[in-house]
User: Fold these one by one.
Assistant:
Number 1:
Amino acid sequence: MKSSVSSIGSIIKVAFTYVGTIVGAGFASGQEILQFYTRYGWMAEFTIALSSILFVWLGIKMMLLAYDVKAVSYEDLNRHLFGQRVGNWISIFSLIVLFGITSVMLAASGSVFAEQLHLSPQTGLLVTLFASYFVIVKGMNAIMNVNSIVVPIMVMFTVLLLVYTLNSPGGDSWLHLSTDHSMTRIWLAPFLYVSFNLATAQAVLVPVGATIRNRNVLLAGGLLGGVMIGLLLLAVHIALAAQMPGIAQFDIPMAHLIRPFGTTLQFLYIFVIYGEIFTTYIANVYGITLQLQNYMRVPRQVIIVAILTLSYFCGQFGFKPLLTTLYPLFGLVSISWLVMLVWRPTARSAPR
């Protein structure tokens, strides 16, 4: 009985860590869902369904591959996917861009403090840095515990918003929302979204696969996490569709949607957005730390401090400039990475 409860707890932690890694600042703000799904009209329901299938299938597969090859960091997985030489280059490129995305997340924390709390952006950066250090030094279990707090709150807000939307005028807009975009762009969007998010999520999902030495827990956790991501995508899409096209003008659409619920819930949702930024940030720093430990014979704490300090200086460039420069660059490599992930069999499915 105790073992069964422990397994269920591990499954939930894996699922919440998966969701927390995917649901970053762009997701929590609503901007990613708007750009990749809602603007494509009623077809978004089908592309979200496809994305959900891909998140379940490939999220599980990534963790099982990490489990099978006993990967310590995502470099081990990339070597397995691409071979020694190409895998090393992919890992180096991933390290650079992953650090860039880490800087984007830190810059985003400064933006939240400035725009939503009317405090200095530097306050946001420094609070995030110090809090991150104390979580990261405690390892993967601490990161999973943080996600176990933030993700349920995010789910609660999303459900609340969905119920409110379905019972308000325009609640059925998602069923007949029109679009002028081509079918090519509509059906390419879910592949771009999934490939980009999974390519960045490898920094934490690979260590999860290596840490949780139980295939059944990884299978169930990946299934639950992938389904939750799909349901969250659909719920936010429905809420955004009810406010189209006007909602598209806002940088943080979800903050606008929460306004009818009052000041208290608005403030709590700001915490949710910050929490999602924070969980993505600590996951990325943790993944980079594991990667650098393969190259440097220095204490782990020194590497963590160095990454945090360097990301602080890079974060001074600001959220939008970093976002618009780095995300398209990483997207070019993400598709080829996704193809290799699909192509490589896991140990159980590999020919004997």
Number 2:
Amino acid sequence: MTSIDRITLEVPDPAAASAFYATAFDLDGQLDLRASQTPTSGFRAFTLSLVVSQPSTVDRLIGTAVEAGARPLKPATKGFWGYGGTVQAPDGAIWKVATSSKKETGPPTRRVDDLVLLLGVADVKASKRFYVDRGLAVAKGFGSKYVELATENIKVALYGRRALAKDAGVPQEGAGAHRLAVVGDAGTFTDPDGFVWEASAA
């Protein structure tokens, strides 16, 4: 199974971004930051999701993110799938915090059970073929709507760009760099939608 070691975000000010993420979320080394002034505007066609155990943990993480400077995009609410909300970090990355549980199972914590990278792609089926041809397996698939790749440590899924923007609560329009790199043992390449994958250092 493909291992994803970490996600690298390219940010204008790594020191400021590091301070934000240290306060907002507990990610245990799964996130790297590096400086970049590469032009980008609007929706960068990805979101990062923190999957947690209960609604109070969603509220706590969204609360600390907003206090640290994140902009609320969608307030945390109950849905048929569970409970969650979305914020935008000062560097522009969009973060969703969610749980499949609608009930509390214990005291609120800041524990993150899973980090999921959702890539907004132009054609889910075409992107699926690209990744399968590169040796990545599919863990779950829902036709042309959603595909989850079989990865360890950090989950990666393919979602239609328009649907992902709607889920995030932002317009789908955007241009320029994604300012994102997926780092793991899949090798170094750029996918059809311009997402960069980098090999982990030996």
